[in-house]
Amino acid sequence: xxxxxxxxxxxxxxxxxxxxxxxxxxxxxxxxxxxxxxxxxxxxxxxxxxxxxxxxxxxxxxxxxxxxxxxxxxxxxxxxxxxxxxxxxxxxxxxxxxxxxxxxxxxxxxxxxxxxxxxxxxxxxxxxxxxxxxxxxxxxxxxxxxxxxxxxxxxxxxxxxxxxxxxxxxxxxxxxxxxxxxxxxxxxxxxxxxxxxxxxxxxxxxxxxxxxxxxxxxxxxxxxxxxxxxxxxxxxxxxxxxxxxxxxxxxxxxxxxxxxxxxxxxxxxxxxxxxxxxxxxxxxxxxxxxxxxxxxxxx
Length: 299
Prior knowledge:
By secondary structure, the chain is of the alpha/beta class. It has ten helices and ten strands.
């Protein structure tokens, strides 16, 4: 069994939904957990200490170790980290789960929403990771698990949310290259589960019912636990996890079309070749023989 005895984990947004499930599973396997939750609505409004407190109480009642933190990831990253150090003396795992989602059509009025989503979802992820970084290095087997989204394939009226999750996807892969040199592995999940966000989303009711009955948060958390464990062998990856299905979510590149004297007309004429999926190959896994990076584009 993959256990976390002696390990300390921070789970942001740990008071409800996926974060709650992650925190409970890690604690049940021996981790000491900082349950961070600002207690806002799914759209990022208001605050409430009870979600984090309730999860901590649940963990302690089951014989585990946990403390609550109520700071906002956008402004309180250092305080979140300090809570872990004060309570448990170290940090081994950061699970960046906190986020918001508010569907809005794109237009001039959408920029404020895009900025807010980037601030909470992406910059919050980066800030907590950065604050914890020295402790993750000191751990010798630091693990970061970020939260991207299957909506990266595109979702109407979700430009703000999807853009922030796309930033997390790219951040995960790029940071993993640097992190590998100091013993840290950085991965992400792209989860689907029935949560507050799903319940409030503007999607068909029959889809909500399907999510509620077949895609629970508990089905996602084992993927998080594996990525958080010191035996995790991959880095820079995003794993889709929904309803018991796990898949690699990756960038691909095809053979394309080459012409050193290209013209717009050449692009038009050879568009089918440029877009040909039959020659596509996924970008390699970081640390493997087939690892892919920007430098490979110049070979």
